[in-house]
Design a protein that fits this description.
Layout lengths: L3 E10 L6 E5 L13 E2 L6 E2 L1 E7 L2 E6 L5 H6 L4 E5 L13 H4 L3 E4 L4 E10 L4 E6 L7 E4 L7 E3 L4 E4 L7
Parallel strand pairs: 8-13
Antiparallel strand pairs: 1-2, 1-7, 2-6, 3-4, 5-6, 8-9, 9-10, 10-11, 12-13
Length: about 170
């Protein structure tokens, strides 16, 4: 399991006084401020976060050290990370996306299907993007109890029962 978890991303400047448009990836979008200070992926910068009002695609927010519109725009696309120990523990049947990436996926017969490349959300549910040898393209597997009956983080594996014809 990774020690840092991506909890949000900066979508660019909001206004002219250094505010950013902040997309929150947390279950409760306002909880992102509770996990501050947030770091960039490489750890080179840290920001305290003060959420403002909700705006299209996220929240208007103030980040410590960001004072101008130009500084805010320069951060467009930057992902923000929080240490795992600041995040709440999850129930047994829920997982942080960061914990699923890289896990090997096997079918119910034990044959390897590939590894999880990314986890995407299509609005209705999550999809595991799986890539591996023998696959021309990546495969999107619905992350539902029916299609993914077992996730074993300790063993670093997922057992999948994919819909017929998916692989």
């Amino acid at each position: 399991m990774t020690e840092m978890v991506c909890v949000g991303a900066i979508a660019g400047a909001f206004g002219v006084r250094g505010e950013v448009r902040l997309k929150s990836f947390t279950t409760d979008p306002t909880a992102i401020a509770e996990y501050a200070p947030l770091s960039t992926e490489d750890g080179s910068r840290q920001f305290d976060v003060a959420l403002g009002r909700q705006v299209k695609g996220g929240y208007a927010a103030r980040l410590s050290g960001v004072l101008t519109k130009e500084e805010a725009n320069a951060l467009r696309g930057v992902q923000l990370f929080a240490p795992r120990d600041r995040l709440p523990d999850l129930p047994d049947d829920e997982f942080y996306h960061a914990d699923l990436i890289g896990l090997e996926v096997f079918d119910t017969g034990g044959a390897s299907l590939g590894r999880v490349k990314t986890v995407m959300n299509n609005g209705a549910d999550d999809l595991l993007e799986i890539h591996g040898p023998g696959l021309k393209n990546t495969v999107l597997l619905p992350f539902t109890r029916a299609a993914v009956p077992t996730v074993d983080l300790g063993a670093g594996r997922i057992v999948a029962d994919p819909p017929e014809g998916l692989f």
